[in-house]
Every structure is written in C-alpha cells, then in structure tokens.
Design a protein that fits this description.
Blueprint lengths: L2 H6 L3 H21 L1 E2 L2 E2 L3 H17 L4 E2 L11 E3 L2 E9 L6 E4 L4 H10 L5 E7 L3 E8 L1 H11 L1 H4 E2 L10 E3 L1 H8 L5 E7 L10 H7 L3
Parallel strand pairs: 5-7
Antiparallel strand pairs: 1-2, 3-4, 4-5, 6-10, 7-8, 8-11, 9-10
Helix pairs in contact: 2-3
C-alpha cells in the first residue's frame, strides 16, 4: 500500500474538499470536452489532470511526477516515486474499465495472456444525480482478486463482430476489488450545479493581453 496515498483518504479536510469540489470540477471537464451537447473522449484526460492536480495540491509539485514516458502506458502519475494508474467511468453502476485500447483481436488476446495487475489504482465512479465515489485500490488487493478468480474472469475481451473499444477489467472483478477490505473510498454525491461556461473566454482574454 502507498502510505502517502492512503493518507489522502484519512485527511478530514481533504475528504470534505473532495466531496464538495470533485463533482464541480468534473462537470467543468465535461463542459470543456463537449461539442453540440456530446462529450468527447478527451474528457478522460481532463479528469486525469484534475486528480493529478489534487495530488499536487495535497503533497506538493516536487513529490508528484506526471510527465512520464509512453513506455509506461498504464502509469499516469508517480507519487513519491510510486506508480499509480488513474481510471474514471460514468454510469449508475461501475462497469468494466479499460486496461488497453485496441481494435486488434490478436493484440487483445496477447494482452489477456500476459497482463498482470502491478500498479496502485485511483478509480473514480461518476454517477450524476446519484452516488459514486473516489477509490484507492492497492496493487496487492488487485493481485489477490486476480489470482483468486483467474485472468479469464478478471479480464474481459471485446466481443467479436462488434466495434471493439478495448480490453477491460470485468464488471464483476471491478466490483470485487472496490468492495474489498483494504480499498479506501470517499463516497460522493454527484450533483450538477448551474454553470455559465464559455469555452472561448480564456483564449479571447489571452488574445487581449499586450
């Protein structure tokens, strides 16, 4: 377990701030990533930046490393040198989260045969007008569940003949790891606020600077 990351979930002031601010910030992320009322895939990257910014706010920029090489595709940030994967998903119930994006069935099968959970996970379940949460799942819990249920049940491959979006942690495996003893959670009530948002304002303001 990453003791520094666990500390985040035990800091009363930070927990209160997360409950209050995370829905608002994720709502801004959706507005920033929307066009003609539809949310683009880039929203995931914006959400990721919001979580990394939370770690910087709590621990200081010198202890958070986010400029990571593409050779570590599963690692989104390092906190005090320890790698962390960040995943977010929207919906009433948390379903499978992507491990790798691929449209190649052979590559997906190779991934199934070789992948093993080895990084701590920050997982955000977004459920607008309902309950969700921010979770910290230590790598040890993921490994225990993976070894217990087996890779065929832990990993879900895209269905043949459909438009494959990638390889996922299965819905049942995800539910098991986030419900496991040792997983940290901050329960969040996802309520949207009225926000007047202009996607061009900051750029217009920058054009207006001398």
């Amino acid at each position: 377990m990453n003791d520094h990351l666990a500390e985040l979930f035990n800091d009363t002031k930070i927990v209160i701030k997360i409950k209050k601010r995370l829905p608002y910030l994720f709502q801004l992320a959706e507005l920033e990533s929307s066009r003609a009322g539809k949310i683009g895939m880039e929203v995931g990257s914006v959400r990721e930046k919001i979580i990394i910014a939370l770690l910087i706010y709590k621990y200081g920029e010198e202890n958070v490393e986010s400029d990571l090489p593409i050779t570590e595709p599963e690692v989104d940030v390092k906190l005090f040198g320890q790698p962390i994967s960040i995943k977010t998903i929207s919906g009433r119930e948390p379903s499978g989260i992507k491990l790798i994006w691929t449209v190649d069935p052979e590559k997906a099968r190779d991934f199934l045969n070789t992948w093993y959970p080895k990084y701590d996970l920050i997982f955000v379940h977004i459920n607008w007008s309902g309950n969700g949460g921010l979770y910290y799942v230590p790598s040890g819990i993921q490994e225990e569940v993976f070894n217990r249920v087996g890779r065929e049940k832990y990993i879900k491959l895209p269905k043949q003949g459909t438009n494959p979006r990638g390889v996922e942690i299965s819905k049942d495996a995800l539910r098991t790891i986030i419900d496991s003893y040792g997983t940290k959670v901050i329960k969040i009530n996802w309520v949207k606020e009225p926000i007047e948002y202009n996607p061009f304002k900051k750029w217009v303001d920058l054009w207006g600077e001398e």
